[in-house]
Structure formats: structure tokens, C-alpha cells
From TrEMBL:
Highest taxon of source: Bacteria
Keywords: Membrane, Transmembrane, Transmembrane helix
Record-annotated membrane-spanning stretches: 12-32, 52-71, 83-106, 118-135, 147-166, 178-196
Pfam families linked: DUF1405 (PF07187)
PANTHER family associated with the record: DUF1405 DOMAIN-CONTAINING PROTEIN (PTHR40042:SF1), HYPOTHETICAL MEMBRANE SPANNING PROTEIN (PTHR40042)
This protein's name: DUF1405 domain-containing protein
Keyword Cytoplasm carried by entry: no
Amino acid sequence: MSVLDKLFKHRGIIWLLFIVNLLGTLYGYIWYGNQLEFTAANFPLWLLPFVPDSPTASLFFTLALLLMLFPPKSYTGNNVRELIEALAVVTSVKYGIWAVSMIFAGGYQGDILVWKDWMLVVSHLGMAVEALIYARFFSFRKMIPLALFWTLANDMLDYSYGIYPWLPSVLNDDVTQVQYFTMALTLFSVIVAWLFSSRQRPVDSIYQFKNRF
């Protein structure tokens, strides 16, 4: 095992990433507050969980980290863990890339990028990178079809009902192209998740430190 692998699997690092991702997830849901209120007022309430795409991806990854720290013991628990891991990697890669792409596409068409845009670029790139780093510590290949189904269903709802994340105003006339890009990115993210995943869960060195934190 490499030094970097030992570092990323150390409980102290996982706890740090868990806290950072938890705070980022909460901030993300707050960021979507206006769109959630608009959706609740104008669409069926069952659509609300499909509105905040990036925070939900971050939530999946946060839960995956928590399950690294406290792995389930039962067969059912391990299946749930693997499903969360699959959703975490697929959606984090997808929406990490998607958000950065939309920000730069808006900038290319004349939208003025401010510090919040650059903050979002850094945070969303971080989502994709950390998901790929930890994918090889997960074992979720059998759950990738379910993750694909969830993510494609989310795409269909986003663009059928118009609940996709609000775009820079300069992209409002490019929604069809954004839809095609989004669905292609779903397939790309699934392929990447498959390539980066492990067939078998590695022996987690973090268990060696379970009594230290």
C-alpha cells in the first residue's frame, strides 16, 4: 500500500473529509433554497428531492465516508453501503464536472464570473476528485446499474418538468444542448466509476486505527 493510500484511509483524514463534506452539503441545500421554494410552490412536492443535484451527490459521498468509519456488519447493511458508494462516485463525478462546465459555458457566452463562481468551481472539482480517489477503496460494481438508473431518472425528471439546476441566464436558450450534455455526462460518469472501482473491497487499513478516534 502506498503512502498516499495510507494517508487517505487514515481515520483522521476521513473524519476531516466527512466534516468538510457535511458542511458543504448543508451549504449546498441552503444554496438551493430559492429553487426549492419555487418548486414547492409550482410543482408536485414529490419532485423536491430531485432538485438539489450537487448537494445530494455530496450527501451520498458524506454517507459513504461515514460508512468507512463505521462499516456495517450485516449483509443488508453492506448492500446499502455499496449502493451509497455507487451513487456517491457516479453523482459526484457527474455533478462536479457538470457545474464547472455550466459556469465556464456561461462565462464563454458573456456571463461575468464572480468570486462565488470560482468558489463553486473549486468545490465541485473537489467533489469529482475526491470521489475518484476513494472509488478504489470502495466495492460497488454490482450497484452501478442502480446508480445509473437513479441518475438517468433524475435527468429525465429535471428536463421533463424543468426542475434542472438554474442556469446562468445566458444559457437559458441552450437548455436542449444542456440536456444532451447532462445525459451524456451521466453515461461518462458511470464508465469512469466502473473503471476506478475495485472488484473486491480492499482490506481497510482504517480498521487498524478504529480505537484511536
